[in-house]
Amino acid sequence: MSSLPGWRDLPRGATITEPGSSVKYKTASWRVMRPVIDQEKCIRCRICWTYCPEPAIIELDEPYTTKTGRTFKVTYSIDYDYCKGCGICAEECPVKAITMVEEVR
Amino acid sequence: MGKLVPLSGNYAVAYAAKAADVDVVAAYPITPQTAVVEKLAEFVANGELHAEFLHVESEHSALSAVVGASATGARVFTATSAQGLLLMYEIMHIASTMRLPIVMGIATRAISAPINIWCDHSDFMAAADTGWIMFMAINAQEAHDLVIAAYRIAEDPDVHLPVAVGYDGFIVSHTIEPVNIIEKEEALRYAPKRVTWFTLNPEKPVTMGSLASPEWYYEFRVQLQKALESSAKVITTAFREFKQHFGREYREVDGFYTDDADVILVTMGSTTGTAISYAEEARKAGLKVGVLNVRLFRPFPEREVLKHIEEAKVVAVIDRALNPGSSFVGPLYSDIAVTAFKKGLDIPITNYVTGLGGRAVLKSHLDTIVKHAYGLIGKRMRDIDTHYAFVGVRE
């Protein structure tokens, strides 16, 4: 926090003078539980991606082959800069491939 | 020089807003302020004032509307009283911390319950912690002049704060007095329209009124405190310039017979006039009474107050408001007592709450106060059992 500007240097009245600066605001700091995807169980149904309110589920163009030999064209991962740990993805996952684990910082 | 016209305090305030050539007015009628809005609506309707007059459904909306208008760079005005001011309370903090140079007139009135439309300072004092610069006028001329000075101060690049000008409900708002009106050209020479604050402009986009998390909020509240502190210098300059432009001299506080006074009555608003008249009579009867009128309430002019009270034997602070259950009882008292305490001034400083809900503050009340204060001469604060009294109430 000491690296942030002091009251003398901040623009008056809490005005934000840089347009579009909200993208720099990482909103994941209040997450208590983090979702973790088990790539072996995941069937690439895209339901988590659809339900995520953020959206913090990322669809990567990366093929993945499971130990049982099934190959998928895409991989789902989680954007931990914005995921707030709501757990909707884990709740909706039809194959229980997403588990919520305690966030340790 | 302007021309002398018989005007009520409310009309004097409306004429001042017109002279300041305001761009946007949003206000909701409430007694005793209503005539201000009526007059401004008339000015707009007959083409004397080229402003946007916003008909809003409440005072909350009135102040919100001028916050928005001010954020676009418009010169704005609103006015209210009592319950209306309380409804604005939430937005008052927003206006000040967003550093918007809004000017508001407050025809001071008692707060419900019971419902009471008459004068006291309960509404004005309830706004004392909202971060606005606050003046209290003693008559219609002052109300007129201070509204114009308010624009000079509020819009100063070293200030950027909202300013409220209080004047006693009915006693000032409805009494017709000769008022030297400032014309638009003169007002704009003194307080030219210069937009130096952050504004909403698509050419230069900014975000105003955003969220500030714990890492950011505190700094902006400190900015507000520092802004009020440093506004004191601009207020002094604005008063000096006012005298150069219009010939009338204003100060943060006025001392009347304070140089050799045993007892100093500290007053705000129309009570000051009664107190000066009383002091003149009391002096003929051998009581060395002085009067200190507090015109600038926020930022509280500690240095100027001290200059007048440090030689006194007793300071009697008169409040037309009450902070029920507080250690100080009257709001003006708290500022005077802390000011004295910080400089180690160990004389009796007592508080007299009077004139609530429009009860007249009479010379006989002031005489009771002065006689009581005389009985405390030579004592120190620790020798006094009760620091406050109600004057003019039925037991």
Task: Provide a concise account of the structure shown.
The complex is a heterodimer of chains A (105) and B (395). By secondary structure, chain A is mainly β. Chain A is built from 2 helices and 6 strands.
Structure description:
The complex is a heterodimer of chains A (105) and B (395). Chain A is mainly β. Chain A has a domain at 32-102: Alpha-Beta Plaits, CATH 3.30.70.20. Chain A contains two helices and six strands; from the N terminus they run βαββββαβ. Chain A has helices at residues 47-51, 88-92, and strands spanning 33-37, 57-60, 64-65, 71-72, 75-78, 98-102. In chain A, a hairpin with a 5-residue loop joins strand 3 and strand 4. Chain B has 395 residues and is an alpha/beta fold. Chain B has two domains: 3-246, Rossmann fold; 253-391, Rossmann fold, CATH 3.40.50.920. Chain B contains twelve helices and 15 strands. In chain B, the strands form three sheets. Chain B has a seven-stranded mixed sheet, with helices on both faces. A six-stranded mixed sheet of chain B has the order 9-11-10-13-14-15, with helices on both faces.
What is the global morphology of chain B? globular
Question: What would CATH call the class of the largest domain in chain B?
Answer: Alpha Beta
Can you give the mean pLDDT of chain B? 97
Determine Rg of chain B (CA atoms, Å). Answer: 21 Å
Poorly predicted segments of chain B = none
- Which chain pair shows the most residues in contact? A-B, 15 and 21 residues
**Could you state the order of secondary-structure elements of chain B as H and E?**
EHEHEHEHEHEHEEHHEEHEEHEHEHE
CATH architecture type of one domain in chain A: 2-Layer Sandwich
Biggest sheet of chain A: strands, sense, closure?
A: 2 strands, antiparallel
Task: Count the domains of chain B.
Answer: 2
Task: Give the overall pLDDT of chain A as a whole number.
Answer: 94
Strand content of chain B: 15-25%
Largest sheet of chain B: 7 strands, mixed
Termini separation of chain A: 17 Å
